[in-house]
Design goal:
single chain; 725 residues; mainly beta; Immunoglobulin-like; TIM Barrel; 5 domains; 6-stranded mixed beta sheet; 6 helices; globular
Amino acid sequence: MGLDVERAHNLGVATLEPNEPAAVGSHGTWYLTYRPGADGIAAGGAFGVAWVWPSDWGEPQFADPAGENYTTARTASGAPVELTYDREGYVDPYQKLLLARLPAGLASGDELVVTLGDTARGGPGCRVQTFRETRHQFVPVVDADGSGALLALAEWPSLPVRGGPAVRLAVVAPSEVTVGEPFALLVRAEDEFGNPASAYAGSVHLLGSDGSGDQIELGGVEVSEGLGRVAGLTLPHSGIWQLAASGVGLTGSGNPLVCRKETRPYRLLWGDIHGQCEIGCGAGSLREYYAYARDVAGVDITSNQPNCFQVTQGEWKETLQACREFNEPGRFATLLGYEWSGDFELGGDHNVYLPGDDGVLHRASHKMVRDKSDVDSDLPHINDVFAEYEGSEALVVAHVGGRRANLEFHAPGVQRLLEVQSAHGRFEWFLREALERGYRVGFIAGSDGVMGRPGNDRPGYFYGRNVRGGLAGIYAREHSRAGILEALRARRCYGTSGVRIDLWLEVDGQPMGSEFRTSKAPRVQAWALGTGPLEGIELYRGLELIYQTPAPGLAPRDSRRLLVKWSGAKLKGTGRLNKTVWDGELSLSAGRILAAEPYGFAAPQDALLACGERRVQWRSVTAGDADGVLLTVDAPAEAELCFQSEPVSFSLRLGALGQAPNVVPAGMIECEVSVERLPLDERPRGLSFAYLDEGAKPGVNAYWVRVLQDDDERAWSSPVYVEFE
């Protein structure tokens, strides 16, 4: 993809050196050289370079020669240069703009060299982005006449960005199989940012354990460029299995795998059905996007969801073709769709999923598409979208994106789901707002990722994303488009914060998403299996918490182990608006802090900065999720713990801590700080309950559960809607 604008062929040439592959997160120096065309650049003109907005390349700075990303510029003739940088300086999606203004112009035959990551005065260089990209482009733009209008040059220099050194192994397995059923397993050697480690290769050993102490050898898999896949594995008996990998200096394990004696009516599939590539406002080609979801993240379903107003007719044709090519029932399904992106007043962002291989793109507008020949197909209001798809098999999902969905508008036959987490943040307030309005919607999660990593999206240093992208767990009758769309429309699905937590909910035998009537007290059953120890399962009737397991306050607590965590969002909005800065510190008035560990930190900017015997400092941002610090202390009961940050500051006596967390509200959107003593015993990875609700209210009762894992990972079931008579 390129910008849907004219490119200039007579304004000169820009080159990049070096242009060999660069490793994610590394530092280096690059020279952008511009040679103007025959007419040169007029006084007051400029040369610039723009980056795609999701890129988290280090942002140029001009004040600190010893700091990272220090950028300089010079001309061969000595003509003066003035450098500026603006995150919103050019056109979407190439918004980030480094501009070299030329007060005296630049003559033909002269040249301008911009040095990204100048190390001459002690700086470490410019930081490379944190995600892989086959062709990372530096878009050269020129203001030739000093008018301020920027034109893109015809040729764009680029370089490949590859994965960094491997730091861990990840194992991706199906969540459920039957005894003797062949299945495939994916091993991924990850760098510190979650990318496949490009240089990692060799034989990796696989081992399975069923929780009873039994272990079986599963053979090996050859890993190349950080990836390996082996098919035809089987398990000998039923149980809950954990699969592990070891080799070439690393170890790792995967999601829990339930092996059953017999098949169930529904199979749990995993998907990230909300993200964008360069068809849209993201990075990487569409085919790379699909291949990543299938071969790197190992999800079962994906969909590219480009902002509709950016997609040309040619790109939509490419979407139809690639979506068809990658669809492989039984292994990998692609859902055709797009993101209808209207202003909040007109409905806000919604994901649209279409059945089959063909479909019409109905844009909210053509504001970034030059070809207006199909403008009559636009649907300018979300009510127009609802009317277009009413009675069809299409599906519309509300989400909080660049323009959060406006829940004043709703069509129950079409808008069946809402998204509770994406890389923007965690949006439990959005879920609750829908329930408050009486809507019967299901809950899922996705990445809304723009870095070309569907199913395994991480925030990196990008200011527009804050947390790991979510995943959708989908209970489908068959692994096909039709089966998946049927499950989604039936709301037989749930969302997680990005890990593969197994979750099942039913009421009177009816699965999540169902609707039915009864005159008897509803019997609710649920079970969850975590990727780590579970803190608990909470059962809600609408907005009311009516039951939880394990019961709070029963487990004995460790007087030496404390969890101090902060959570919430600043505003109800996109990733830039909802982030809450919690930079701060805590201290003890007496005793010692023996150890401090980070909790829930999602992005590389989140960090513990100092850990002393009496004080801990941190840098942290939350967006509906929680961050915190796990403390091991040796302190008397009368010691005061003092917490200080911009949202809230307080102190409490350690002796005042009981079985329940001490919670301090901090305003904004569900912002709070909690302090609690941790349990003495390790929490279980599996929990279940059965609950007879004798307090059901006349009318519709929405039963849903929230799973809490002790590392702040979450899962949210779609509700069962029970009309109680």
